[in-house]
Amino acid sequence: MNKKALAILMRARMRPNHHTNLALPPISNEVNQLLPNSRGNRSGSNGNGNLNNQRSFEPVRESMHSVILMHKTEVLDSVLNDFSEGYFSLSFENRRKLLITLSKEYDLNRTQVCELIKQYLGLKSPGNEVQSGGVEDECSLSTFYRIERNLRHSLKPVYETLFERINTHSEGLKFLTILRADILSILVEGNIASLRAMDSNLKDKLSTWLTPAALELHQITWADPASLLEKIVAYEAVHPISNLIDLKRRLGVGRRCFAYFHSAIPCEPLIFIEVALLKNIAETIQEVLWDNPPIAESEAACALFYSISSTQPGLAGINLGKFLIKRVITLVKRDMPHISPSRYFNRFSKIYLALYRTFPRLVFATLSPIPGFMPWLISKLASQSRLAEAEDISCSSADKSGLPFYENILEPEEERALIDSLGDLTAGKSGMEILLNVLTPTTHDWINSDKLLSALKSPLMRLCARYLLQEKKRGKALDSVANFHLQNGAMVQRINWMADRSEKALSQSAGIMVNYVYRPENINEYAQSYFIKGHIHSSDDVKRYTQPLTENECKNS
Amino acid sequence: MNKKALAILMRARMRPNHHTNLALPPISNEVNQLLPNSRGNRSGSNGNGNLNNQRSFEPVRESMHSVILMHKTEVLDSVLNDFSEGYFSLSFENRRKLLITLSKEYDLNRTQVCELIKQYLGLKSPGNEVQSGGVEDECSLSTFYRIERNLRHSLKPVYETLFERINTHSEGLKFLTILRADILSILVEGNIASLRAMDSNLKDKLSTWLTPAALELHQITWADPASLLEKIVAYEAVHPISNLIDLKRRLGVGRRCFAYFHSAIPCEPLIFIEVALLKNIAETIQEVLWDNPPIAESEAACALFYSISSTQPGLAGINLGKFLIKRVITLVKRDMPHISPSRYFNRFSKIYLALYRTFPRLVFATLSPIPGFMPWLISKLASQSRLAEAEDISCSSADKSGLPFYENILEPEEERALIDSLGDLTAGKSGMEILLNVLTPTTHDWINSDKLLSALKSPLMRLCARYLLQEKKRGKALDSVANFHLQNGAMVQRINWMADRSEKALSQSAGIMVNYVYRPENINEYAQSYFIKGHIHSSDDVKRYTQPLTENECKNS
């Protein structure tokens, strides 16, 4: 592309344009809240608006009814088009009304369910005592299976038919993701049991339809259409892309970007991953985003996954990334033959053995945020400090260790260093209270004080390791990103101090980032032991943070 | 392609080669019964074979068990590969054993179902009387929906999990079609209720996964890989393709071939349709298959669908052709701009109106077999003649019209002409008995006698029209091909005497073929009235066959 064309591209707005046929944006989609047009719909619920709303609501409700009632052999196309167009024209209030109507009035026929249950309970079920053989047996068994099947069908909510029919439409899956995004944003405002039940039904359906076999992996390059690239810019959720130069850098030499697509959600990357080829596992995000010029790819020894973004709010809770990393590892390897000499030489040949040590081996690692660390730490500190206050009358402020449920999460040396760093300001306060006071303000003033920084490093790194390796919920890592990588078969390799100084990273994890490492030969084993025993594999370096300090280390700290 | 290359291709065997990774053929697949290797598996159920069979059966059963038991977050790839490879290595007997085991031992947990039914019946269901509002209401409703959901899940057979997991595999859908083909061929041997229930479950699943939105329409041309073309040759079910020259002809000038594909069943055309561009609606299949050289496409006034073949026995009963014809009509139209001038000129412009009459309008028609006509007619004649024999003692052989259920399906003139044409050979026999005797032998000697031919034409054409327009089952046309086209929105245009003299066509329909016509502007209307009222649209010419002859016509016949 010449300079002029690029300049024109850069002047164009950097936002996706969704206005294709079936592809209108959900009102709840964050990206699209940037667009003035779609926000406008949210208003208009007063005065004349009400009448207009009512007028636009009824036809859509009727077209929805038609879609559900039509017999399956009829031609649905035009009815489905009517409904989807109608739906997209509705205000948020009317979408809400329609979806609640759908969840309540197009649920089960419970009279029929009860009738079938009665029939079902009256039959003898096929147990082990029934030997195959007699024709009569097979006959009564057939009846049994038929009624069981009818019962199963009767328990299927009517709205499932609507979802299935929309899915037969060429861009139906896209419509359904938007529908679910709307359901989720209604549920955020308050729980509605019928709607929650409908959401869980739709989520199950979407999971089946978005099976990995139906997803297509595509490498995003600078040769892709601008309409696709601007979506990558808009959807990047981890490290915002500031302009097209930044984007071009992320698709250029030493970088890769891969996205999953589905044929029924055309031109929409559902999830994408960005990879940097580096000499070493990066410790800070600056190394990844600002290493200009990049190293030659032939010098790379590490493929670093530095950003993974899910793009569709309507697909929340559906694990699309499951097979993504494994497939990307295969693709990157294939693409860098100098890294895997075994592709070219027999593993036991002399030439392979001679060259083996001269070839660097590619390490697959991530540089990941720890989004739950600070929320966890602050809530922990706050609850301890409330506990302490409540019991303050009976105890001295310095020693609360006798309290039930009270736990001083700071080591004595750490507490001392903290108090020292702040001097008189800490009068009478415990280390945890000080920590809470320092970390709570969203201004993050602490990063400007060298003294405070050095006092905070030791406890924050230790507590971060504890958070990653030991804090669990139902046997799984509490941190969502950690859980994602661990269930994919990664291990916790290293945590990095001041790895990302952005506002967001300071709020999420006090600027700490973590490297997970994927060892292709251990992926399956690690994934299984994490799943079965909740076992989190980690390097000795990270483990050491969570073990009591030795005397020697105490002196050094 | 040069002559030499073509000659080599033509010497190659004309059968598909299925031996890819997951893609081994079902033992029951007709096409593959041609291959000696796959038939071999069917033997080996005696002597040492039994022991070997047992030895190969257990590991496959175990790998199937593993696939079902694994948690969804585990990595299934290798286990699924084990199972599919194992399955394909089994003999027919062992596949049968495995599938019956699956249907019986991996069914529901019925104790759990009963337990949940008990809980469910104990709850108050959300009726109209429940107003949205109170938090407590929403809470008890949530419980209700949760238990209802659990009940729904508990009614899901365990083997559904197996099917869903296989479907996540990249060529899983292909494996599932083969599995179902095997189930169907076991059920042909005898009914097994549990297996029948499992089949209906798998069929439902396959229908969902093979939704039209997931199917891709591809025009097959001579530029396609030979591996695909040989499949078209092997799968052509209506008018066998004799060699590559014949195939090249069907993909050349004045011809089109379109196929539906699914990404998870790679390189397999699931259903395909062949189209001929002709001057008129063809009356005989010879005109279509042997018009050499073809007319120039610019002279075509009719796009004739002369062959539609479903290829996968495992997809029996799943209507893949539903949207095929509509989509093909659109594609053919787009491809022939001279036929649809409205694409290029405004419909009301002077130039359009001036040219309108000079442009031929493209008619979309079929030349279709009537596979059920002779079976229906012969069974009708046989039952009437049994009825007549039973009552023979009390009645004269000439007049049986007084018998209950007895119906002389021949007109008096037709009966007279038949008796005349055969002379003394018919002594004492009724017209229907003679017809039965003439039509039953598979040697079809009647087509060699001009006298007989002319005597048969009138009754057979009339009865064929009656069969197509009036004989129904549950409100739908009895003939499967007729039902297919009518539900797609076609009308019955014309029936053609001696349209196909092949062995197969003589057995199916005494050589008669039918033209269905699709009028794009009526497709939806006709499909709906056929669906709702069972109404079969037909031309006056065909209707006339089914009406009583006028006096004038009697004289002429």
Automatic annotation (TrEMBL), chains A, B:
Domain of life (superkingdom): Eukaryota
Domain Malonyl-CoA decarboxylase C-terminal, residue spans: 214-340, 355-518
Gene Ontology CC annotations of this record: mitochondrial matrix; peroxisomal matrix
Pfam families membership: MCD, MCD_N
A GO biological-process term: fatty acid biosynthetic process
Region (Disordered) residue spans: 19-55
Biased composition (Low complexity): 37-55
Annotated ranges, domain Malonyl-CoA decarboxylase N-terminal: 147-209
Gene Ontology molecular function: malonyl-CoA decarboxylase activity
InterPro entries in alphabetical order: Malonyl_CoA_deC, Malonyl_CoA_deC_C, Malonyl_CoA_deC_C_sf, MCD_N, MCD_N_sf
Alphabetical list of PANTHER family matching this protein: MALONYL-COA DECARBOXYLASE, MITOCHONDRIAL, PTHR28641
Name this protein carries in UniProt: Malonyl-CoA decarboxylase family protein isoform 2
Organism: Hibiscus syriacus
